[in-house]
Structure formats: C-alpha cells, structure tokens
Amino acid sequence: MKLSKMGGVLEWGAVLILFIALLWVSGLSGGSFSAQRAHELSERSYHYGPSTVVRKVQADKDTLVYLGTYKQWFSADTVKRRRFKWYPGGGVAGVPKNPEKPLAYSWDVSSSGTDGGLAKFFGYVNDPNIVSVELDMVTEDRSSNTATSGTERQSISDDRMFLFVWKTEGRTFLWQSIKGLDREGMARYEQKLQ
Hints:
Layout lengths: L1 H25 L8 H12 L5 E9 L2 E8 L2 E10 L2 E6 L4 E2 L6 E8 L7 E8 L6 E10 L4 E10 L5 E7 L3 E11 L5 E6 L2
Antiparallel strand pairs: 1-2, 2-3, 3-4, 3-5, 6-7, 7-10, 8-9, 8-11, 11-12
C-alpha cells in the first residue's frame, strides 16, 4: 500500500513539474532569440515590408531601433530584449517619404514597465542639399516639475535618415521645431511643431 501511495505522489510531482515548466516556457513564447528576426516578425505582424534595414541604433543594452525603408516609406522599428528573447517594441508602421517635401518625419513614444519607455523622433531627408537636421525641444522633468530648452543636431549620412532617441525616465518631450540645414548652416527647411 505504501509503495502505491509513493508512486502516486511521484506521478503528481512529475505532473506539477511539467506544468510549471510549461508555464515558464509559454512566458518566453512569441519572441525570437535574434533581434533581427524579432524585427522581421514585427513587420510581418503589421503587414509591412520587408524593409531594407539601413541602420541599427542601440538605444540601450536591451533596445535596438531598426531604421529602414520600404518602397516610398520609412520606419524606425524598435525591438526589446526581455529575459532570453527579443520582442517588438513599436514604431513598425511606415511613414511616407513625401518626395515633394525636403524632409519627412514622425515620432513615437512608448512606455514599458519599470524602464520608463522610449521616445523617438525620426525621419527621411529628400533634399540632397540638407546635410544636418536640428530639433528644438523642451524637456519637462515630472519629478522636479522643471522644464529645460535645448537643441539636438544630427548629421545626415548616405542612408538619408535621422533618429533622435531618448529614454523617457519620468520626462516629457515637447518638440518645438525641426530644421534641415545646408553645409553653411542655413535652414533649407523649417517646420514648427508646437
């Protein structure tokens, strides 16, 4: 009688261990072991692409932004690493390049748990005379209730794309204007955003 009871306890113990293992593994499902593959799955789930990745930008140790183009569109798709896998993080939607404009732009702000999230301002430069982009902004710190003005600047490389990226960490970003500058620093394009 004792032997059969012991067998029953072992059997239920094995079932419990399998059940816990199944729950743990299912928590890892849906992602990918490769950041590139997670980016491809993100595009596929949105029925966009496949885009040509022109640049990968490491926002932090667990976040990559894939700048890409697809036909007459551009995108800044984010993938994030959690535990052992990479998962989509937002920004996969394509934005029209608008060839009639000197530059096209978009932004995306996402929050994710305790890390505070990510803010991206990105775009595509159509005018070959624009060699840098300048973003005027106000950063509000919610914890200290203060605001600071500033300007971010980025040179345009051969891929014609730009990306400004920040960890939000309790801050709000108010983008004031975007400018496309020529070699002499003169504005060839300016758009007020507020």
